[in-house]
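Recap slide: Inositol phosphatase, sequence and predicted structure.
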Amino acid sequence: MSAIIDDDAELAARLAEAAGRIAVEVRESGLIDGKALGKAGDAVANAFLMRAIAEQRPDDGVLSEESADTEERLSKERVWIIDPVDGTREYGERRSDWAVHVGLAIGGKPVIGAVALPGVPQVLRTDQVNALPPAPETLRMVVSRTRPGADSAAVAEAIGAELVPMGSAGAKAMSIIRGEADIYLHSGGQYEWDNCAPAAVALAHGLHVSRIDGSPMTYNHKDVSLPDLLICRPEHAERVLKLVAELS
């Protein structure tokens, strides 16, 4: 067995970085392209993550987008929630706005996490907190580059925010920490693996993280649908949540 990494945050970061590196190597092989490339990158990165977590944390539960789910994890206090390649379209198109998510929910809360952005490259993590850049005069709301939600567009118009199209959920969430955006509002449908690691990292950096009704993000449910979220600077949360409630 490989040497055990005792620190959960260090393990999450190393898993995310390594999985991203593996996915990049698959892409740079030049042997496949498009949707087939996305599937291959997902599969190879997932195989690595599942095996590594089984070796490093054999008693923990795991929920992965790319592996068959079982109810065994529901009895676990600690559950790793992973998305081997978040933004397979962007990955397959050789863009940089895709990510690898490795999150650890403890008691249903997103406590530990790492989000790798291999195209940057950068790994943002819960144990290494960066100071947030100051907000600009005109706020920026990051939205899906392929299917921006009507709620996001309406809120952005109401507060005079500029829309910033971007790929994966992880890339969008991390764009606030990286100073590329200020608000990430999503209501178009997601699953636990889409936002567990990003939520953990965002919370560690002092950002507001919630459902769009203001309730907390919780994980390791039987139904893994977690369709909406708001990640933003704390000073903007109340205004955005109020607008969402009014528009709905």
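The chain has two domains: 8-125, 140-247.
The chain has seven helices and ten strands.
(End of recap.)
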